[in-house]
User: Fold this.
Amino acid sequence: MQLQATITDIEIVKIPSITAKISLRNQIFVAMIFLVLLACLLILTATYFQYQNESEDYNLFRLNRKEIQLRNQISYLVNTNNLENKSDDHWIKYKDDFTAIMKIHNVNFSVFNLRGDALFNSFLPLEIIANNYKLSESILTEINSSIEKRVLIENNDEVGKFQSSYSLLFNSYGAPYGVLFFPYFEDVSFSENELNKFLNSLYKIYLAMLIVAILFAYFISKYVTRPLETIRLKIDQTGLLEQNEKIYLKNATKEVFSLINSYNHMVDELEKSAKKLAIQEREQAWQEMAKQVAHEIKNPLTPMRLTVQSFEQRFLKNKPYSEEKIKEFSKILIEQIDTMKDVANAFSDFAALPEAKLKSLDIVAISRRSLEIFEQSKIDFTSSHPEIFVNLDRTQWVRVMTNLIQNGIQSVLAESKAELKVEIKKLMKEVQINFSDNGVGISKSIKDKIFEPKFTTKTKGMGLGLGIVKNIINSHGGKINYSSSSKGTKFTITLKI
Assistant:
């Protein structure tokens, strides 16, 4: 019905408890702090790499400047003494001059001819780099093939980390006469100290920023979520049958104002639905009771009819009947009539079921007698003990037996023969009653609905039988469970002894 659909929709609108997940306030707070930390981290990372790049550029600038100074000093010495035209042995005479240049600039360097032989060498670590005072063919080839006639190589070995510069030396006419080897060792201690000082200053600044950000995020998140918290509290108190109050907030944002309007509209709809529901519930109560009475009256009539038919067939066959047997048949009919009487009383009192009148009774005898009316069906009845006394309401237990047996018979396909089994077991402080059939089983899609009133998979009936069974078992302080497959269903009832 339309009213039921409205109620369902209203229930869906109900917001789950805020403790089920992180609150919006905490989400905003954490998000702001995360963004601040991320920004600090990115700035620190960018600063570090920027500083590293600037340091590398600075050292490269110093290397180039040193190399130019050396080239100028060497070229002046070579051109003044016309050394490019002299033999290699003649260069030894100017060793002190080259050494003086080395001391002036406080660097090591070597000069090689175009064949790679050393003309001047300043020892360690040059002999390691220069391959025993001689340049390798690969270095010479790389120098000659480069556009700038210069090769810069980074070294990192037992000598340390440094850059090696190899470049051609030219005379005043632009003709090459040698190769200058110049190792440049970076002084990183100063740059590292400066970097550490700079980073420490940034750490202090960012720590102060983080503290300010935490305080700012706390107040902002509290301010933003305050209206939402008010709405949440109102929604938690909202119910279909409650006296719901509307929400009125000043200075609400556009989004919050829209949410408040939706809530107030829901309150109006709830009020309308509650009035309709009150009227409909009275009508449905009578309808439901009528269905239940019809079902409960129908159930005893079936075994009564079977009892009369069995009794008639036996008399027609002229089989002798003892007085005891006739009394037994009569007792069964009377029990079913009493059941109908109880239902009528329940309807007159507008109650679901009569109150259970518990007595210590032999459940084995009562159950066996209840099954005798189903003589046309194959029912295997077993008990672990000949007598088991349980606090029972005789009439209601007969109804349980009748409902479950009939349910098992109706679950069997028309072309198959019903085979049912009832087993009673006495445990330590409990008695267990198992009802098994060879029916089609219960689908997984409806496994949680079979005990609900009005639910049935049959084409006929009101679907109240299993619901009534469960209510009776609950009134006896027992439990009922079931397991099902394509080969049949098994109901298990547990009662305290």
Observations:
- The chain is about 55% helix and 15% strand.
